[in-house]
Design a protein that fits this description.
The chain is of the alpha+beta class. It is built from 5 helices and 10 strands. The protein has a 6-stranded antiparallel β-sheet. A 4-stranded antiparallel β-sheet has the order 4-9-6-7. Helix 1 crosses helix 5, helix 2 packs across helix 3 and helix 2 packs across helix 4.
Length: 190
């Protein structure tokens, strides 16, 4: 899995630069639109740092993409096969939290995306409201426990529990236990 994660990081650096260049944006313009420091964007594009989930979501949103959309463009998927083979599913690890994200399904010709996440014990991830503007989503806990704070409301989910998200707001995911939590995110483009 580390090879896939490392390859994805290199491919992300190239893709972010390509997306920025395609729009004719300077580093400063992308940084401003994403709410990320210009130096951080520059280091990401040069492959000097691996972006966190929060930063990737902000950059993807600035481009008008979901995180999955940006990752898929970076991976260069589009071989036409309808089966999403486990061995070919992009995997990315957040360097800040150890959060591991597997893109189980995402196709430009299908409105549904499926993501599997493993959130390490004691870890937390906050994603901005901008990442949910054009999608509807639900989280289904497959193993462990997860706390989701959404729009000031705290939801505790255990194995098998599912939560559909409400209107776009900043969302925090917490694993307050001593064991990893695995959950599935189902996203539908609106």
């Amino acid at each position: 899995m580390n090879t896939i994660v490392d390859d994805t990081g290199r491919q992300l650096a190239v893709r972010i630069r390509l997306e920025r260049d395609a729009r004719g944006w300077s580093l400063a313009e992308l940084a401003q639109r994403a709410g990320v420091a210009k130096a951080t964007v520059s280091k990401i594009e040069r492959g000097e740092v691996s972006p966190t989930a929060v930063i990737l979501v902000r950059i993807a949103s600035a481009f008008g993409l979901t995180l999955a959309g940006l990752l898929l463009r970076a991976e260069g998927h589009g071989n036409g096969e309808r089966v999403s083979r486990a061995a070919a599913q992009p995997v990315w690890r957040d360097p800040a939290t150890g959060y591991v994200r597997r893109q189980v399904l995402s196709r430009p010709d299908h409105p549904l995306e499926i993501v599997q996440v493993q959130l390490p014990a004691g870890a937390a991830v906050t994603l901005p409201a901008a990442s949910y503007v054009h999608i509807r989503q639900a989280v289904w806990v497959r193993q462990g426990s997860l706390v989701i704070a959404e729009g000031g409301v705290r939801h505790s989910l255990d194995e098998g529990d599912c939560l559909p998200f409400g209107p776009p707001s900043d969302v925090e995911f917490f694993n307050e236990t001593a064991l990893p939590c695995t959950y599935v995110v189902l996203l539908a483009r609106s």
